[in-house]
Task: inverse folding
């Protein structure tokens, strides 16, 4: 697919998930950095192989290890010389009760002592220009045994004078494309596109295309409208306050994004037999 449109930004890295050795963590962060041990299981869109791995800490990025090391790591941190007050979290992919903070050097020493050789680093939401991205692999382990499972979410923004909505061709729907309708009734079923594949030779396993408006909404919504039915007046008032703030922020966005007259319904960007809408 080729889009003959101006690019508003260079390629940027939105997220990554890479596997490194514990020693490589010291090369990137240093022994004196402080890691917060995890008391919750953070969701992250990673390969299925890592779905059971333990989220054991956060230092800007998420740290995960194989579940077989959960108890040994806890016991090691509780023993000499650390004697840390760390207690097991019963959730299968969370690590500790509470969120104690400790030196990364202490945690790395403990990981090495129990024989852990692989730590999964997961970062998201940074949107760093590709030329400025500091790949964790640059600090060590480019040839780690699990390097083929490293993943990067790379994005690029194309500017248009419209809010472009799309839908897959009818023949493409059966090939794994999904459409996420946008703009309610005005969008008439058109919206963003998603495609997943495990067999592409270029290594691309997940493709998404959606209007910049989605980024605007994500940036200002702050969970507005999420959650179950409010059970008391206080919750209702708080949600109304949040939604009003959301509306006020949207009023400050570029006018060509907010004006419905610029809405463009473009179907069939992928595949043949497009679903065109005049």
Result:
């Amino acid at each position: 697919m080729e889009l003959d449109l101006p690019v508003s930004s260079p390629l940027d890295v939105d997220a990554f998930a890479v596997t490194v050795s514990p020693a490589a963590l010291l090369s990137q962060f240093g022994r004196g950095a402080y890691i917060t041990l995890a008391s919750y299981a953070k969701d992250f869109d990673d390969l299925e192989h890592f779905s059971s791995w333990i989220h054991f800490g956060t230092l800007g990025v998420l740290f995960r290890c194989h579940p077989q090391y959960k108890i040994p790591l806890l016991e090691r941190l509780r023993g000499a010389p650390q004697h840390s007050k760390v207690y097991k979290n019963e959730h299968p992919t969370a690590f500790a009760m509470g969120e104690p903070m400790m030196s990364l050097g202490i945690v790395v020493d403990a990981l090495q002592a129990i024989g852990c050789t692989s730590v999964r680093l997961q970062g998201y939401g940074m949107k760093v220009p590709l030329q400025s991205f500091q790949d964790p692999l640059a600090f060590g382990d480019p040839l780690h045994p699990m390097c083929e499972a490293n993943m990067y979410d790379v994005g690029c923004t194309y500017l248009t004078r419209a809010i472009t909505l799309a839908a897959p061709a009818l023949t493409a729907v059966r090939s794994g494309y999904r459409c996420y309708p946008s703009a309610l009734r005005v969008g008439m079923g058109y919206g963003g596109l998603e495609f997943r594949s495990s067999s592409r030779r270029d290594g691309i396993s997940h493709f998404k295309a959606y209007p910049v408006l989605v980024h605007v909404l994500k940036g200002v919504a702050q969970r507005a409208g999420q959650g179950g039915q409010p059970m008391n007046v206080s919750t209702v008032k708080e949600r109304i306050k949040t939604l009003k703030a959301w509306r006020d922020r949207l009023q400050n966005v570029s006018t060509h994004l907010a004006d419905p007259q610029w809405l463009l319904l473009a179907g069939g960007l992928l595949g043949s037999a497009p679903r065109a809408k005049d």
Q: What stands out?
A: The chain has two domains: 13-154, 160-278. The radius of gyration is 23 Å. Residues 13-154 form one domain. Residues 1-5, 256-278 have pLDDT under 50 and may be disordered.
